[in-house]
Design goal:
Helix content: 10-25%
CATH topology of the largest domain: Jelly Rolls
CATH superfamily of the largest domain: Galactose-binding domain-like
Strand content: 35-45%
Distance between the termini: 59 Å
Number of helices: 1
Radius of gyration: 25 Å
Number of strands: 12
CATH architecture of the largest domain: Sandwich
Structural class: alpha+beta
Order of helices and strands: HEEEEEEEEEEEE
Length: 216
Amino acid sequence: MGPRRRRIRLVVTVLLAISVAASLAAGDAAAKKKKKHKATVFSASVIANTPIPDQPASPDRDIPVVSTVTVGKKFKGKTVGDVNVTGIQTTGDQATSAGDLSMSLSAPSGRLVVLEATSLGGQSIGPLTFDDDTPTSICDSPTLTCADPDSTLIRPFVGTANLLGLSQGDLAPLSGLNGVGMKGTWTFRIWDNSSNSRTSTLNSWGVQITSERPVK
């Protein structure tokens, strides 16, 4: 092979390498741009120390505390790519008050996720954030005694955890809300499942929503 042909082949190889590198860089930039959706935090206006009614002795149904967050028209046409429930905090009056509580979140469309169904023990909860994307799950114990190495958030559950073991069937996890419209009223409900002398109050909660794409 002559020197001229080797030079041509070398130039072609270099140009090909540059082209591939540019293509990869463009792909990475496009992927980053596609994934770059800003999360917005919406905090509920909860009246301080809102009592959670005890279940009646002969209940027709539980009596929930209902608290809402309104996502305004700025988000019209946006759908949910990810949602977290943030800063849930309750205060109980007895050592096992938290064990009576259940809670849920519903989207403006009416789609519902049960966040917790009388699975948490102890007196009080939080501030606790539920997030599907964290590997950390709850260890319902005052000490770190759970066998699962990811179950490390112990009572009173101050921090961030997923919903593993806390909810029921196809009503969980929070990814069940992905794809619904963001705009409208998001509703948090918390209720007492037991008729006894234990009581709790709701101090705070909120939602953090990351948009997915406009509604077609």
